[in-house]
Amino acid sequence: MIKAVTIDLWGTVVVDSPSTDERYRRERLAGLETTLLRFGFRVPAADLARAYGESGRHLARIWRRWRDVPVERHVTLLLQAVDPALPGRVGSEAIIALTTAYSSPALLAPPSLDEGTGRVLEALRERDIAVGLVSNTLRTPGEVLRTILKRQGVLNRFAATVFSDECGVRKPDPAIFDIALERLGMDRKEVVHVGDDPILDVEGARAAGLRVIQLAPGQGWASRYTPDAVIERLRDLPGVLADLERSERRPAANPALARLRPRFLARPTGSR
Q1: Domain locations in the chain as residue ranges
Q2: CB atoms within 10 A of CB 54
Q3: Does domain 4-16+111-259 have CATH number 1.10.3720.10?
Q4: What is the per-residue pLDDT across 133-175, written as a single tens digit (0 to 9) for each?
Q5: Angle CA(12)–CA(221)–CA(250) in degrees, nearest 5?
Q6: Count of Cβ atoms closer than 10 Å to residue 62 Cβ
């Protein structure tokens, strides 16, 4: 029996436009420059932009090991890329203010809920299926993402929210799914994971011993691990969960599976 669902955030619960990364980058850099000036430190915009890229490459090396760090560490890395002594010179009060400026662009231009999110969460609630959110973060921390979800009226629908910057581990490491299971108080055989990425979601959840439904709108990605089912729209989730509950085996026929095709995992970088 399915008693809980864990679900991915980006590309599943919420969606954003291709221009979001650049917008967040510009707003983040402007906020950092203004905050540094407020504390008496003038850093040229070009130096901040260079340091932003350098800190991003450092973070990508961490992320590729399926590990993560708090967003305060992002700010320290960026300041060190400007001047190794700068974090110590600006002081703790400034670090707090800089972290707020760095974290906040998504609050000003938040991602949109998928059109099916509200209805799906309500349908799962009516069936007493608990929902846990399992998400990797990039430059926007879990704390800010919770604020966005609260403003959108859905945060209280999640029995647990697990973000990589807070727990220190990223999908596809099965440890992040284990954290979600512990917070939900569920056994892995009672839980199905839902997400769009063939590696982070499908392979990661499989490694954690979970059944998996892949969201693959239009053109999906293939994984070496076949998902238990594929949906093209999030709003199709309740029906597919019911199908899985009716059968212990994988669905013998799922038209969306035929459209999956391989695609390499993109480097885990970005500004969102």
Answers
A1: 4-16+111-259, 20-108
A2: 15
A3: no
A4: 999 999 999 999 999 999 999 999 999 999 999 999 999 999 9
A5: 80
A6: 16
